[in-house]
Amino acid sequence: MLDLPPPVPKLDAQQLLEDVNRITGAGLQFVGQPAGGEVGAAFVRWPDGRDAVLTRGAGGLSELRRTAEALEAARGQGLPVPQYQLLAEVPDGVGVVQERLPGRAPEQVDRKLLEAMIELAELFAGIAPDLPVPSLHLLESGPGFCLHESLERYDNRTRKLLAWIHEVGRSAPGEMTGDDLVHPDFHTGNVLVDDTGAIAGIIDWDGIGRGDRHFGLVTLRFDAHVRTTDLAWFDELLHDLLDPAVLRLYWAHMALRMVDWSIRHHTAADVTHWLEFAAAIP
Fold it and tell me: Which Pfam family, just one, is annotated for this protein (predicted)?
């Protein structure tokens, strides 16, 4: 039996809602839970009828206040991002109540949607000078994700990948640079679209940071790999936008993230799938 790190626990939405209401007196009502998602969120409603989304935030209260301020600045630039309406310290973290944006998850992922997301990411340019640069965790485990121990303990294939990740982490550049807004999980599951298919919202801003907006395109490329085919144009775009060493840096992070997550949450077939894709850096 492998001694692997445990999976990330699913959100107990009812308990979190009870804690937030008890501590703040917000009077939020449970509405339901969205389909999909790896860890969880809950739809809730304010006493005045406004719909909202409840999650457990990543980080402490000061970090989440900084996230709220950055999202307000992004809203001021016309980006369709949610407003943080309430932050509440609860026994096991911070409850975040945020605006429920209009729209729905896209039913179809195609080149049109991917190109719209790539175009929208250009609006992230230069609007995050005061945020910290997020770690890519190539030389140490992340907080609940990007765990090196999973790859070290799983098998020889994952240990080989981990050795390459360490090599990339010790090479230049070792981290992101720039003053762009960075969405750390910029994929098709984190956008909402309207009835015409146009993007109406970008959600799940945990871990927001400052750096290179093009990092999100590498995240999107990993996601697109399992959503659609004929992505040669996307690979050409990445080569046009990113220096090979920078592409390698971001690719190493995503390989670590996806293989670790698959080891702890999914199947052996998923692990093999992501190992093979990680080796196919364009």
Answer: APH
DSSP state of 280: T
Structure tokens at 13: 């939405």
Which token pair is 36?
Answer: 């999909």
Residues 93 and 129 in one domain: no
Residue with tokens 């999973």: 150
Give the tens place of pLDDT for each residue, 94-120.
999 999 999 999 999 999 999 999 999
Can you give the pLDDT at residue 81?
97
Please check whether residues 91 and 167 belong to one and the same domain. Answer: no
Residue type, 13: A
- Looking at the structure, do residues 139 and 77 belong to the same domain, yes or no? no
Cβ-count burial of 6 within 10 angstroms (0-12 exposed, 13-18 middle, 19+ buried)? exposed
**Of 211, 206, 212, which Cα lies nearest the Cα of 71?**
206
Structural domain ending residue among the three candidates 50, 68, 99:
99
Please report the beta strands in the chain, taking only residues with DSSP state E, as ranges in sequence order.
29-32, 42-45, 51-56, 84-90, 93-99, 180-182, 191-193, 199-202, 209-211
Cα separation of 147 and 184, whole Å?
16
Question: Which tokens sit at 244?
Answer: 């090979």
Strand, helix or coil for residue 104? strand
The reply to whether 251 and 126 lie within a common domain is yes
Has this prediction a pTM greater than 0.90? yes
Domain that holds residue 233: 111-278
Query: How many domains, the chain?
Result: 2
Please write the tens of the pLDDT for every residue from 9-47.
Answer: 888 999 999 999 999 999 999 999 887 655 678 999 999
| Residues 238 and 274 placed together within one structural domain of the fold | yes
